[in-house]
TrEMBL record:
It comes from Edaphobacter aggregans. The chain crosses the membrane at residues 356-385, 406-430, 450-472, 503-524, 752-778, 799-825, 845-868. It comes from the Bacteria. This is Putative permease. Pfam families: FtsX, MacB_PCD. InterPro entries: ABC3_permease_C (IPR003838), ADOP (IPR017800), MacB_PCD (IPR025857), Macrolide_Exporter_MacB (IPR050250). Residues 362-479, 759-872 form the ABC3 transporter permease C-terminal domain. Keywords: Cell membrane, Membrane, Transmembrane, Transmembrane helix. Belongs to the ABC-4 integral membrane protein family. Residues 85-307, 509-692 form the MacB-like periplasmic core domain.
Length: 879
């Protein structure tokens, strides 16, 4: 018979049996018709069952047939134990789904190569050393003149590519349209060719487009942007857009898979690096440097050549530093260039979430192990209940591998149904987690395809899970001894010892999950409740741009117009909002000498800004409309402590570069860039800035701070958006958000870790509790006779309770100690994710201990009550 016919016969077993029986009967009838005695004829052909089995083995595939039979039998077993099966399936589904979801995130951010040629030869250049603050630092920003020198020095060994940090920029497609935002990247003109990319429409940049500053105002848009913004309109080529004062022409669309070099950000518009305003400046680091190393070129000599060139550039640049101590300059120059693999690209999202996603991955793996241990205990209990069945199977000739296969098939069915439910959970949860990574106005964009990467991971995961929870019960079931089982079974204590040890493992992992989750929650609470130094209540931020640079007086006129809008309580102006991500810093000189390595941070503000922000004055006066920068300055308390030894700085002077400032006020501290970092020395200088000749410096952007009388400041947003261009036609509001949103955005990562930590802690506790309940309930059932005898001879209820729980609670204690040890050992790997929290804090140790104890008590109550309700009369009568 053909192979496919044997497979078909395997899948239609009952029909094949009928065919064989009919064929066997026809042969007997033929023999009888030929005159043979019916009894002799049947005896000659042998037993019907034997003939059927022999013929079946020829007409089908025996191992496939046994597998089919085991699947049918396993399905019946699952239906027979509905509650146990449902519990196991849901436990595994939740754990495997969470694992797959975590893998999708990690794969998209850290494992998936960029869709470019030679991705495995792609590296990012970074520098490691000691910063001006004396702390270890890794920095990947470069000045373009430095990049040009390095590219020329290594042109025969590697191709260097400059790629700016992706940023959201304001742009318009015609003068009468509202400003819109898009992600842009300045890239080397030869990037597309070096990456082996082709245009989907038009043409891409060439090296000729990137030779002279401001010479080629062209842009290439991504396929994704072309799709969602223009509906793949082929007439987009030649259309113009305006960014700032420059009009750009769209010359092409990049091919579909490529969305930029920053995982987590989909670039909309690419521009030549020579169009960047800082392309000729040696003191501005604004782009990353990627290197495609040519085949056969060793990376270490290349790194040394790049390091030598870069150091020479920095040494030459440092000659222009004045008033800075030599040791600070040496520290600045003494940095080591490193080549970091960048096959998956390079982004701030990778840097910020590498440890966070690693921690989530570990928590998910622990929950998976808890689920596997839980299901293994359930399978062990079911196998114990079927010991007589297994003994009978062995007695009639079933081999050990046959029994292992039968139990593993049942485990595979559990894993299969869990995988289906887990796949739906992973499909939903991964995008949900991504949506929480960044604030709503600047969300992360990760490509999360459910392709062969995810499929292979899911299959391997399910296979490993099946072995983890199914192999040990299968081996124990197959090792049954018929004589021993039929007499009452092996020593029941050995099986209980195995289940108890699994409880210890579950508790250890559960303690670790709860312990780490508690640290994440405490971090989020302390960071969220950190003193602000200002009030976010009813504070609206209007981030505004002008088509052309405008004098400060025009910005004042818009502020005056906004003050007349009903519902507006106060209006002030600043260069950018606190905690908005922008910064401006420099070294501070006292009496012409830079004595501190600390950088001071500056923020241009209008008169009344401190009162609008509700930052308290400690001494001095507010800025006046006649104050300009350089000139007057308000400084915070940390500034005074850093540069004036804590003395009152009001009336004193300091310098920044060639500019000189008089301190007119001292105010309380407020966070400038981040809630996580210590308070920075900050100077608030007038928004009205003048050049060396005293002429006003024109400004293209600013932020209006609106304190509203309404509890919901966003209610005024539509009115204020229209009011700004009505006051001055050249002004447009590019973004509106509240100060409270900016503060919440500072805790996105911590909120994500706290939420997921709590979720996984709850799942771990639930699974561990179910496992503990299952073991105790099994123990009560197995020891029911002993309990009945003890109660009959007068044992107290407390004695019975201790008898039932003592062994299990000792395992809980051992598991908790092991979990604490694991937690203390692992904390050092994730301590950078904590804020003002220590693993040795008493609360951090007591909380998981009490939580585990409470879960254990709740899980133990039903079995203990069941044991105490045992009727010794019924037990003894049964015996």
């Amino acid at each position: 018979m053909s192979f496919w016919s044997r497979i078909a016969n395997t899948l239609r077993g009952d029909h094949l049996n009928r065919e064989l029986d009919e064929e066997f009967q026809s042969h007997i009838e033929e023999a009888i018709a030929e005159g043979r005695d019916p009894i002799e004829a049947r005896r000659a052909f042998g037993p019907t069952l034997h003939q059927r089995e022999t013929s079946r083995n020829i007409r089908l595939i025996p191992w496939l047939d046994s597998l089919r039979a085991d699947i049918v039998f396993g399905w019946r077993q699952l239906k027979r134990n509905k509650i146990t099966s449902a519990t196991a399936i849901l436990s595994l589904a939740l754990a495997t789904g969470a694992c797959t979801s975590a893998f999708r995130l990690i794969d998209a951010l850290f494992l998936r190569p960029l869709p470019v040629a030679n991705a495995n030869h792609l590296y990012e250049l970074a520098r490691q050393g000691t910063g001006f603050d004396g702390k270890p630092n890794t920095f990947d920003g470069w000045a373009y003149p430095d990049f040009q020198l390095m590219r020329a020095a290594t042109k025969n060994q590697a191709e260097l590519i400059a790629v700016s940090y992706a940023q959201r920029m304001d742009l318009t497609y015609s003068s009468d349209q509202e400003t819109e935002k898009a992600y842009i990247q300045y890239v080397s003109g030869w990037m597309f060719d070096s990456f082996g990319l082709h245009p989907a429409l038009g043409r891409l940049f060439t090296e000729d487009d990137d030779r002279k500053p401001n010479a080629n105002p062209y842009v290439v848009i991504s396929y994704d942007y072309w799709t969602h913004r223009f509906g793949r309109d082929p007439k987009i080529i030649g259309r113009t857009l305006r960014m700032g004062d420059t009009l750009y022409e769209i010359i092409g669309v990049s091919e579909q898979p490529f969305t930029g070099t920053e995982p987590g950000t989909i670039t909309d518009i690419f521009l030549p690096t020579m169009m960047h305003p800082s392309v000729t400046r040696s003191d501005t680091t604004w782009h990353r440097t990627l290197a495609i190393v040519k085949p056969g070129i060793p990376t270490e000599p290349l790194r040394q050549q790049l390091n030598t060139t870069s150091r020479a550039f920095e040494r030459e640049r440092a000659k222009g530093f004045t008033g800075i101590k030599k040791e600070l300059i040496d520290r600045f120059i003494d940095q080591t260039l490193v080549l970091e693999p960048a096959a998956t690209g390079a982004s701030n999202l990778q840097r910020d979430y590498r440890r966070a996603l690693g921690a989530i991955g570990v928590l998910v793996a622990l929950v998976l192990l808890i689920a596997c241990a839980n299901v293994a205990n359930l399978m062990t209990a079911l196998a114990a209940a079927r010991s007589r069945e297994m003994a009978l199977r062995v007695s009639i000739g079933a081999g050990r591998w046959r029994l292992v296969q039968m139990v593993l098939v049942e485990s595979a069915l559990l894993a299969f149904f869990a995988a289906i439910i887990g796949a739906f959970f992973a499909w939903w949860s991964a995008p949900f987690v991504v949506s929480m990574i960044n604030p709503p106005d600047n969300p992360a964009h990760l490509i999360l395809p459910a392709d062969w990467h995810v499929a292979i991971f899911g299959l391997v995961l399910i296979f490993c899970v099946m072995l983890l929870f199914g192999l040990l019960p299968a081996l124990r079931a197959s090792a049954v001894k018929p004589v021993s089982a039929l007499k009452g079974g092996d020593d029941p204590h050995s099986r209980r010892r195995l289940m108890h040890s699994m409880i210890a493992v579950q508790v250890a992992f559960c303690f670790l999950v709860v312990f780490v989750a508690g640290l994440f929650v405490a971090t989020f609470n302390r960071l969220s409740n950190r003193p602000m130094g200002f009030s976010t209540d009813r504070l609206l931020l209007l981030e505004t741009v002008a088509h052309h640079a405008q004098p400060p007086v025009f910005w004042d006129q818009v502020a005056d117009d906004l003050r007349s809008v009903p519902g507006v309580e106060a209006v002030a102006l600043s260069g950018w909002p606190l905690l908005g991500g922008n910064s401006w810093n420099g070294f501070i000189a006292i009496n012409g000498v830079i004595t501190s390595p600390d950088l001071a941070y500056f923020l241009p503000v209008s008169p009344g800004w401190t009162s609008t922000m509700k930052i308290p004055f400690l001494d001095g006066r507010d800025l006046r409309i006649t104050d300009t920068s350089p000139g007057a300055a308000i400084v915070n308390d940390t500034f005074a402590k850093t540069y004036f030894n804590g003395e009152n700085p009001v009336g004193k002077f300091f310098g920044k570069g060639n500019n000189r400032y008089e301190v007119v006020a001292l105010v309380r501290d407020a966070p400038y860039r981040s809630l996580r970092e210590p308070i920075l020395p900050t100077a608030y200088v007038p928004f009205h800035q003048v050049d060396a000749k005293g002429a006003p410096i024109l400004t293209t952007s600013g932020t209006f701070l609106i304190r509203t009388s309404s509890a919901n400041p966003l209610a005024l947003a539509p009115v204020l958006r229209q009011e700004v261009p009505r006051a001055r036609a050249d002004f447009r509001v590019s973004n509106i958000r509240t100060q409270a949103e900016l503060v919440r955005a500072q805790t996105v990562r911590e909120r994500l870790l706290a939420m997921l930590g709590l979720f996984f802690a709850a799942v771990a506790l639930l699974l561990a509790g179910i496992g503990l309940y299952g073991v105790l309930n099994y123990s009560v059932l197995q020891r029911q006779r002993e309990i009945g005898i003890r109660m009959a001879i007068g044992a107290q209820r407390s004695v019975i309770a201790r008898l039932v729980t003592a062994r299990v609670f000792s395992m809980v204690l051992i598991g908790a100690i092991a979990g604490l040890t694991l937690g203390m050992a692992s904390v050092r790997y994730i301590e950078t994710l904590f804020y003002q929290v220590k693993a040795t804090d008493p609360a951090m140790l007591i909380l998981p201990s009490l939580t585990i104890l409470a879960a254990a008590v709740l899980a133990a109550l039903p079995p203990v009550i069941h044991a105490l309700q045992t009727d010794p009369v019924i037990i003894l009568r049964t015996e």
